[in-house]
Design goal:
FAD/NAD(P)-binding domain; seven-stranded mixed beta sheet; disordered N terminus; Oxidoreductase
């Protein structure tokens, strides 16, 4: 049973990245904090299975080096990020094309000059060699039939991404809100650019193959892509929450503790009875949060399946993220992840991790192998399947209208955070925790404020 010493100023329910990052901010401010987690380990959905020296992510959401909260969150100073090769590889019509690795022009005028110069330049001979693409992943020059179209089309897309990379976030949030697919079409983006590049890229970033996501969330995802590099945590997804948990004061995180009810000044657990406190922060997934606090909105979810294979001979795509622009099979994106992060596979072995969006078919491994054979241009018959991880409620959907700043202060003394209160990304989870702890510290510092209840918004 928890001893009186465990009584805290703030009890956080849930030891995912939102709860753990909130605990760091509170303890750094001198607030006594206890984190209660029902699972036997912290981390929530950011978990990694270890099999025979391989580290296999269960969901494997992509991160960006440009996420502000990765730099701002206390406890993440030592986080090592492993970047993918610049841009992405697109598979279309049996060929692979590099896209998105655009040089950033210094100004909009410079971008316009680049487009005009490409439009007026003579066409290079078809035998011209590729320059500036390092390593064994060098690819043929992109032709008019490639996913991005002509050189002018590519320059225009590069200029648009460069502008997006430096656009103020508030300006993006002020744009009219539509489903992402509709917004792209109404903005005059060429259909070839949407289907050949933006749709597969956004599907990978948002886990939404149909692009039903709010256009504002899609703009934020593209901004992060354009201003940084896609990356993964070294050692697996669990490295991020593990780092947060290990850096907290000893005795802060308590695993195997199931909370059955919450109030503004206490939580009740199945194992240890009532734990009294001055405030409660609910930092669980959306469904668990709604079970503990009826009235909270439960969003729809995007299911994700990750299939992990190993082979003795790695495909020749290097550290690139490979997307299927043709949508010719179940795999949305795949990577030789051991080339990106060598710590995820034993020496001399290769780890290929592939993501399937939506509900998987019963013969998912067979379908994935056939698709990967086409994407990588090699036989997968002798590849070994290490694991198939299916998560039905992997990523909260962000269909319009989507409130990116959903309230985190429900009552004085009762708060909630998580990716379901912000954007459905690691950045969103961390940012919601930042907002929630700011509200808690304000209330704890205001005399008597924790005794004044505020109305609970409907479907908060």
């Amino acid at each position: 049973m928890l001893e009186p010493a465990y009584q805290a100023d703030v009890v956080i329910v849930g030891a995912g990245v939102a709860g753990l990052s909130a605990a760091h901010r509170l303890t750094s401010a001198g607030v006594r904090t206890a984190v209660l987690e029902a699972a036997p380990y912290p981390g929530g959905r950011m978990s990694t299975e270890k099999i025979d020296g391989f580290r296999l992510d269960r969901i494997g959401q992509l991160l960006s080096t440009s996420y502000p909260e990765l730099r701002r969150t206390p406890g993440l100073d030592a986080l090592a990020l492993r970047p993918f090769a610049p841009g992405v590889l697109l598979h279309s019509d049996g060929r692979r094309h590099r896209a998105g690795a655009f040089a950033k022009p210094r100004s909009a005028r410079g971008a316009l000059h680049a487009v005009r110069a490409l439009a007026s330049a003579p066409r290079a001979p078809r035998t011209a060699s590729v320059r500036g693409v390092p390593g064994p992943t060098a690819l043929p020059r992109v032709r008019a039939g490639a996913p991005l179209g002509t050189a002018v089309d590519q320059a225009r897309l590069g200029a648009a991404l460069a502008r997006l990379a430096t656009a103020p976030v508030e300006r993006l949030l002020a744009r009219p809100e539509l489903p992402a697919a509709q917004a792209l079409a109404e903005r005059g983006v060429p259909t070839r650019t949407i289907d050949g590049f933006l749709r597969p890229l956004l599907a990978a970033l948002l886990c939404d193959p149909d692009l039903t996501t709010s256009s504002r969330c899609a703009d934020l995802a593209l901004r992060a892509f354009a201003s940084g590099r896609l990356c993964v945590p070294e050692g697996g997804a669990e490295a991020l929450p593990e780092l947060l948990a290990q850096a907290l004061p000893p005795g802060t995180v308590h695993t195997g503790v199931r909370v059955t009810s919450i109030a503004t000044t206490s939580v009740t657990t199945a194992e240890h009875g009532e734990i009294r406190c001055r405030a409660v922060l609910l930092a669980t997934d959306a469904r668990t949060a709604a079970e503990l606090l009826p009235g909270l909105r439960v969003p729809d979810f995007h299911p994700v399946t990750v299939v992990h294979h190993t082979t003795d001979e790695p495909p020749t795509t290097g550290a690139s993220l490979l997307l299927d622009a043709d949508r010719g099979g179940p795999v949305a994106h795949t990577a030789v992840i051991s080339q990106v992060d060598p710590t995820r596979a034993p020496a001399g072995r290769t780890l290929v991790s592939s993501t399937v969006l939506g509900s998987p078919s019963p013969d998912i491994d067979t379908a994935v192998r056939m698709h990967l054979s086409r994407l990588y241009g090699t036989s997968t018959a002798r590849w070994e399947t290490l694991a198939v991880h299916h998560t039905p409620e992997a990523v909260p959907a962000m269909r319009p209208p989507h409130d990116l700043r959903r309230p985190v202060r429900l009552l004085a003394g009762l708060y909630v955070c998580g990716d379901h209160r912000d954007t459905s990304t690691i950045q969103g989870a961390l940012h919601s925790a930042h907002r929630a702890t700011a509200a808690i510290l304000t209330d704890l510092g205001a005399a008597g404020s924790l005794n004044r209840a505020e109305p609970l918004r409907a479907a908060a």
